[in-house]
User: Fold this.
Amino acid sequence: MNACQKDDRMNNMVDDTIYFRDFKENKITVFDWGKFDYNVTVVKAGIGQQEAKVNFKIDEAYLAAYNAQEGTNYKLLPADCYKIDNTALEFSKKDYLHDIAIVFDSERIKALQGKYKELYVLPCRIEAEKGGLHALKPEMATTLLIPNVKDPFLEFTSPGLQLDQIKLSPTGAEQVIGEATLVTNYPNQWNLDYEIDVDPMILDDYNGTVSDDKKFKLLPKAAFQLLPAPYKIAEKENKASFSYTILKKGLIDGATNLFGEYVLPLRIKSVSKNGINPVASTILVPVSFQPPDIPRSGWKVIAASSEWIGGGEKENILDGNPDTFWHNIWMGGEPPLPHYVIIDFGKEYNVMMIELTRRLWNNDLKVVEFSASNDNKTYVPLGKIDFGTNSPKSTLAVNVPTTKARYLKCTVTASNRPPSSAIAEVYVKGL
Assistant:
């Protein structure tokens, strides 16, 4: 049996053509390290597999026509800003790609156009000798090279305050390893050495831009560890990881946990070649060290030196509403300082931190001293909170030596309007 079948394997194939792989506008990042190498790729394709000689040239007429058509105002890049050694390409039958090597002089271009401004261009055209090959479309035989000078930088991939907070707790891990990523914004061809430094000024600058409740404390030196410098990025690598270790022991002073919100401020100090991005050279690593809240269910205020019945009852310091408060008697003879209240937790806890909110929109309360007891008879001092004279803060906290206690005594020893004082809420943290 004989059968005939149409051969459609050559459908949609084209005659031999030449064209720029990247035609029309072609924006180029020229890194500012003097001589910068760039390749323009010319493609030969089609079914004929012809040999060809192709010439590459700078075409001012094409630039003028492009500006007129597109409404642009590009200028011809001067000849001293680049160098092209070979403008003639020879394609064998099987060749399909060739590069034109251009060396841009970044310093001259930068001086000419200023940093990051794309004004000067190279209008390029290719033509095959004897007219043997043409582009599929006329515009594919032209390209406009637009060099944009850019500084070669090492930088953090995510500069500024880091979103991932390192959290420590009294019962958690003794250390936590964190990591930051650095990159070059250029194709790296060198073995780079770099240094990372701790710079408290980064934190000072940050704290100067935020409200008091969002400020951080500097992480103590004993609470972190960096590996010895220098750190390295290998040749042909564009990325590196920098690790640091946060140490909980550095936030413990004897029996007192130094609870708080901290930051480890890191800066890229140096790099062995090229530069450091000034706007991406720093990170702030947030470290939170906090104890858990002791639940207030079952707590009672069992005593007060005095209380104002009619809006200043002692129970108000545990009602969860900062708009209510305990106040010493102020009508019918105000007693002198000190004033106090005693809280019964209902059972023993390891007290580690005390947080107190004073009467809102009122700065009478100045100093409160705290003491603890297991029997409501013998009290040991824990620490104090001092709001000062003109502080706008309503809430302050104090770290105290870890103390096993059932009772907490809050004693007002100083007032900005003696002998008046008021406490809105008392919270205790620990285990």
Notes: The chain has a mean pLDDT of 94.
